[in-house]
Specification:
By secondary structure, the protein is mainly beta. It is 10% helix and 50% strand. Strands 1-2-3-4-5-6-7-8-9-10-11-12-13-14-15-16 form a 16-stranded antiparallel beta sheet. β6 and β7 form a beta hairpin. The N terminus is likely disordered.
Length: 387
């Protein structure tokens, strides 16, 4: 049995043991749905405010298994926000603040904090955070590209600070689903490599430490549920302009366009489709090149100047509580190393299951098992897998 298979088996055993303990608990009425008698966290989530500890489970194949803990603070409960929605005509998410720390088996670790809140009757929203981290990843070739699984990889570390700040303004009236945002991303990261005989030669631009980008974003969100949607769509377009005039070591630009759409195709079947395209121009540090972001692919595994992918997911609601999902996607990375027509098409696919853990919120959680060209991975999902 491989080392990865052994780790999966151990984690599965731990989860089963935990499940046995949970079943043995004398659960309070708050965690049993009075409608069907099943385990349900709706009442607790709707009424909870103040401080709430949150466990973090990491299964990202690029950094290995790991975990951590977060401490969140809800200024008001989701139930109180829902009551306000009856008066204002639109749902305002509760103000939430959090701090967290995490670590993984390959030595990746970090600590950070942030929050999101709204003001001026939800015409404005803020999302932001600051983190101190040391991330260990693998680099598969100079200038990115869709590399073969047999190509030599080189480990590297990014150590430093990362900050993301965003202010959003609602366009139109209180019922509008359209937002425009001003964004600022700041990174100050020292990079170091596990050098070997096949180590690539890096330019000064490749090893840039500081990157400071300002930009605008547009977002439309008409999904029927922000957690586990069954109909509607979301579209976004992001721009960031990095320049020495506002603190960046080099000048470059990044863009992203993405869309998610959900369609009921039968009484118990939901089809979801996703499209995502990203590009970077100018003197881009190697660690900020776009990469294919799909289940089954390690982070930063397939990267280049441009990436594009499409993914589909089918959800079968077998019972009101339980559902199965199947998904598949394909993408390409191209630009500096090869043209689009020469790039390989990278495919991933997988299966998963969901449990409706909060019926009144429409929130499902579960696990996805995914296979890419190189490896197997599994993910703990809370709500939609698409971000």
């Amino acid at each position: 049995m491989s080392a990865r298979a052994i780790r999966v088996a151990r984690l599965a055993s731990a989860l089963l043991a935990f499940a046995g303990q949970v079943n043995a608990l004398d659960l309070k009425d708050a965690f049993i749905d009075k409608q069907d008698g099943y385990l349900d966290a709706s009442d607790w989530l709707l009424e909870k405010k103040g401080f709430l500890p949150v466990p973090i489970i990491i299964t990202e194949p690029a950094v290995g298994y790991g975990g951590g803990v977060g401490l969140t603070f809800f200024r008001e409960s989701i139930g109180e926000a829902a009551e306000k929605a009856k008066e204002t005509g639109h749902v305002t998410p509760p103000d939430v603040f959090a701090i967290a720390a995490f670590g993984t088996e390959n030595g990746t670790k970090g600590i950070g904090g942030g929050g999101m809140f709204s003001f001026d009757d939800d015409r404005w929203r803020y999302r932001g955070g600051l983190a101190r981290m040391n991330v260990n990843l693998d680099f598969y070739g100079r200038d990115g590209g869709a590399f073969s699984s047999t190509q030599e990889k080189i480990g590297y570390s990014l150590d430093g600070w990362a900050s993301s700040q965003q202010v959003l303004r609602r366009l139109g009236g209180a019922s509008s689903n359209d937002w425009i945002a001003a964004r600022w991303i700041y990174l100050d990261l020292d990079s170091s490599f596990d050098l070997g005989d096949n180590a690539p030669a890096f330019s000064k631009t490749d090893l840039t430490n500081r990157a400071s980008g300002l930009g605008l974003s547009y977002e439309h969100d008409s999904r029927d549920n922000i957690f586990t949607p069954s109909r509607g769509w979301m579209f976004g377009f992001d721009t960031l302009f990095y320049d020495p005039d506002w603190g960046s070591d080099t000048r470059f630009q990044t863009y992203r366009a993405h869309a998610y759409a959900y369609f009921p195709i039968a009484s118990k079947w939901i089809l979801g489709v996703r499209a995502d395209g990203r590009t970077a121009n100018g003197d881009v540090p190697f660690y900020q090149l776009p990469y294919l972001d799909m289940r089954g692919l390690p982070a930063a595994r397939y990267q280049d100047q441009h990436t594009a992918l499409a993914e589909a997911e089918v959800r079968w609601n077998v019972t009101p509580r339980w559902a199965f999902v199947g998904f598949a996607g394909a993408g390409r990375a191209w630009g500096k190393s090869q043209a689009f027509d020469d790039a390989s098409t990278i495919v991933s696919r997988g299966l998963g299951f969901r449990y409706l853990i909060a019926r009144q919120l429409g929130l499902q959680m579960g696990t996805d098992f995914a296979w890419g060209p190189d490896d197997f991975a599994f993910y703990i999902q809370v709500g939609s897998a698409w971000r």
